[in-house]
Amino acid sequence: MGASTLIAMAVLALTRSLPPEQILSGFSNLTVWLIFTAFLFARAVTTTGLGSRIGYLFIRRFARNPLTLGYSLAAADVVLAPFVPSDTARGGGVVFPITLSVARAFDSHPGPSSRRIGDFLILTAFHATYTASAIFLTGMAANPLIAEFAHNIAKVDLTWIRWFGASVVPGFLTLLIVPYIIYFFFRPEIRDTEPARLFAIRELQRMGPLKRSEWRLLTIMVAVMIGWITSPWHGIPNTFVALGGLSAILLLNILSWDDLLAEHKAWDALVWFAPLVMMSEALNGAGVIKFFSSKLFGQMQGWHWALILFILVLSYIYIHYSFASMTAHITALYPGFLGAALAGGVPPLMAALSLAFFSNLNAGITHYGTGSAPVYFGAGYVAQPTWWRIGFMISIVNIVIWLGVGIWWWKLVGLW
What we know:
Blueprint: H1 2-14, H2 20-23, H3 30-48, H4 50-62, H5 66-80, H6 87-105, H7 118-135, H8 143-154, H9 160-185, H10 194-207, H11 212-229, H12 231-234, H13 238-251, H14 257-261, H15 264-285, H16 288-297, H17 305-318, H18 326-343, H19 348-361, H20 372-377, H21 384-412
Helix pairs in contact: 1-15, 3-8, 3-11, 3-13, 3-15, 4-5, 4-6, 4-10, 5-6, 5-7, 5-9, 6-7, 7-9, 7-19, 8-15, 8-18, 8-19, 9-21, 11-13, 16-18, 17-18, 17-19, 18-19, 19-21
């Protein structure tokens, strides 16, 4: 991605398609620096061990039966999601190792013993990961890119608190219902989850009490969260709230500058994210997005906007069978689909939010749809046909929740 965008910038300059200052303008975008900073928060969470500790604490406290054990893994993912903007890093790097260790603690391995509890835990943890990404603006790397598209095309601002306010009810309803559905189809043979709690207790004992670095990081994370929530009142952009938190991490020596330089995912995101923002703004300003969306979806003119939204969302979800990256899907399709929704009379905020949430929720339909999917699938507990079947079924559930309950929730809170 980084190489592609650098080449594109060079081509734009050499062909004089855009002036040099416009080509580099993406690097001054606040959204770009917000997601860059969030990646560095993720580094702090994993380096200090705070992420793993949170996971084991949830298991120790709530794992009273197989279903609550699944809920505890989902809860750990949700707690980490605002600060770890990569479902690969969060799900694959933090929650997956815990999930796998717990399954093995029950002597549940790929093959005949997977039905003991392993397949249930793997599927529950995976489907919680991308749902958590949908709940928070900083839950997935490309969510701020969506916010930028929405601002440029639909002229609506998807702030951190507005995003969370719209997603909180359908998101947590999904996290409540989906594990139960998986439990229904993959009812574990294990009934006593005490070994999982004992395993978590042993791991927490091995880690010892909260280290000073963890206490400091936890305090900073809470302060940053409060800063994001209260941003409409104090007026400081979310990006600078995050940069303030990152500065505190450096000043308190939670991470060193060399640690931050070593976080290549953050620098990689900075390199490809900024040019994408710049190019999307240029395409929108030239009227290209509006032209293509009207040509592609012009036949829907005159339909009721609710039907148009439903068809667009349905198409947007299942076209993801052709994508192995949520970011690539969003970059290629979100602007056009959003333009088509606006042309069809869909309220701007509803159009932007619906497509934004399903830019995350569509990741669950395949074993390659997002970075964490191959990690969970690669554990070998669930066969590919089963993975796809469950993924399709849960996509239907998500449509019912987010376009059913969700839309009425947005109406209730005055978003349309």
